[in-house]
Input
Amino acid sequence: MTCWAVIPVKASLESKSRLANALDTDARRLLVRSMLEHVVDAATQAANISKVCLLGPSRHGLSEDLPLLSEPGGGLNAAVQSALEHIAGQDVDRVVFIAADLPTVTASELELLAAAPEGEIAIAPDRHETGTNALSLPLPAAASFCFAFGPDSFALHRAEAQRLGLPMETILSHGLARDIDEPTDLPDAAELLKRSG
Output
């Protein structure tokens, strides 16, 4: 089985504006870069992921060996839709989309997503079980999956799996659930903040 991992990245690493009350611009930029590196490392170490790609306008200084999928503009959902169309045309059995802001995710957690049974969608919600931090899609069964990242994406993605008539597994794990959006989330990034500080 061939499984690719895709990690969408924004045009600027100077994001996470909701953390502005807790971290200055430089600290936010370093944290975002450190989290991206951590997620790439975890995906690269996952035994059943054969290729790791970034999706966006830039590798943000990471290795030139890391494939970069171009995005058409129009936001995250348009970007991942474009990536899915591209990958569905390759000889790939499964694609896993992973958020770039998961500071404690492990290779073994990503292996769970990649090991979902044939024909089944696996989804990892955030800690509130409202957002989607990772989504594992079987190909070609889910080649027409319509993404709905944003508010209530977990429920919307489950509804999309139902629309396609595909079974769905929810994966609840610490590292996959702990994305960094608000200052109250920062304890989960303490180790990376220490290293990047």
User: Anything to note?
Assistant: The radius of gyration is 16 Å. Residues 3-196 form a domain with the Spore Coat Polysaccharide Biosynthesis Protein SpsA; Chain A fold (CATH 3.90.550.10). The longest strand covers residues 132-138.
